[in-house]
Amino acid sequence: MYKVMLVDDEMLITEGLKNIIDWEKLGLSIINTAENGIDALEKFRKNPVDIIITDINMPLLDGLELLNEIKKIDNKVKFIILSGYEEFSYAKKAIEIGVQAYILKPIDDEKLEEKLKEIVKILEEERLSQKINIKKDAILKSLLNNMITKDEVLNSKEEFKIEFEEKIFVCAIILVKEALNTISFKNIDKTEVLYGDFGDIILINSFDKNTDKESIKRFYQEILEDIQDKYKYNVFISIGKTVEDINFLNRSFKTSNLVKKKILSEGFGKCIIFEENDIGNNTLYFENEINEINRLIVENKKDELEIYLNSILNLDNISPQNIYELATQILVLCDNLKIKFKINTEEIGMLGNSIIKILNFTNVSDIKEYIRGKLIFIINNIEKENIKLSPIVRRIVKCVNENYNKDLSLKVLANEYNVNTSYLGQIFTKEIGIQFSDYLNKVRNSVAKDLILNTNKKINDISKEVGYLDTSYFYRKFKKYYGVTPATLRELQNY
């Protein structure tokens, strides 16, 4: 059943509409009525519908204004406009902004039913297309992440707009400053469009082998100008490295993400293509900076920390890519301190979500403010004095931190230290704030997180290295603590 809302300031009209059509027979259900545009907009936000039938002339917010507001929320909603006016200007404007039908009052029930049938058919086609697109998008995303080969893509029997033979391939990323609602790429040849997990738009293109770099850049520059002219959006496009085989598309995707970080220095309205010197050996590890931040936090020096943060997160000193890298390392430090000082996980948020937020920022001031908030939160929640633990709990904590990869249990440790298991469990939970098993899991996952971000080791091997023989169990625990799977956390380094 597709959902319908009726909007008219005359109650007799909405009641009449309910009765002149066999809605159920058409596969439709009226779930709401509204007496003006404001009322309709509020109800739509709480309970969206597929079709809105509305009068054009209403107080507070008329039918066309309502349509514009709804389209900002969901561009797929279908509209039928009812009007007592036969003026061409009304009908023309309604058609221009995407109305499926413009019906004059008094309402012809046969004409309304005919239009509803047409809309239902469109909705069915869109639903089918969406199912196909979901499968195709999954295949293309696997290709971008080097998890599938060209042969596997071709064997999927999906229809692709790009060509796979005797071509060169490019991946580009579009960032849109405003909330994204409606951008059509239907008229762009040899282009697959994906909507990324982080609010960006990914374009995959195939070009003839003799296409030069300037022509490729001009192709994307025209897309940027078209979006800015047609939709009035502020746009930035990063163009990845050209590759000569679709199996290497991952390289173009990675380099487009590298170029994307230049938005910090370039701003919106730019179309930038990858240059070989972008790659270079410009990865910095920021060991001294992280150690200094750690010291300032532990010593509770807020003012010095803010000054230091402003000095290191500065585009005059390091590249946009390095700013994202440094910000990510600071988030990892916060996460480690959170575990060490027993800070509430829910309040500070999960590491995966925090990294995603950083990657979505498009100016340095937003990054600084977000990082500053995390650091101040950590400082405010660290006890001024060292955490005082009883000797037995201190020994257990030391044992776990040094032997997390071994088969540890409270029972084994209780026997080793000649203490009652139940008593030891109670005192450990009281002093540490969580049960022994949760503490062991946190330590294991903290070590795993650092290995995932700082080494190329396989995740299955990391799982075993930190003490998990069952990789699927490790995945569940890791996602519980960090909000993303181990594989996803590693993939975030490509963004």
Please give a structural write-up.
It is a single chain. With 495 residues, the chain is α/β, with parallel strands linked by helices. It has helices at residues 11-20, 37-46, 63-73, 88-96, 109-144, 150-155, 213-231, 249-260, 263-266, 287-298, 302-312, 320-340, 345-348, 351-360, 364-381, 391-403, 410-416, 421-432, 436-454, 459-465, 471-482, 486-491, and strands at residues 2-7, 28-34, 51-55, 78-83, 101-104, 167-176, 191-195, 201-208, 235-239, 271-273. Helices cover 54% and strands 12% of the residues. Strand 3 (51-55), helix 3 (63-73) and strand 4 form a beta-alpha-beta unit. The radius of gyration is 29 Å and the shape is globular.
| Overall geometric form | globular
Distance between the termini: 40 Å
Query: Considering DSSP H and I runs of 4 or more, what fraction of the residues is helical?
Result: 40-55%
Uncertain stretches = none
Helical stretch tally: 22
CATH class of the largest domain: Alpha Beta
How many separate structural domains?
4
Q: Could you tell me the number of beta strands?
A: 10
Q: Briefly note the CATH topology name of the largest domain.
A: Rossmann fold
CATH-level-2 architecture of the largest domain: 3-Layer(aba) Sandwich
Query: What proportion of the residues form beta strands (DSSP E)?
Result: 5-15%
Instruction: Kindly report the average pLDDT value.
Output: 85
Using only C-alpha atoms, the radius of gyration works out to 29 Å
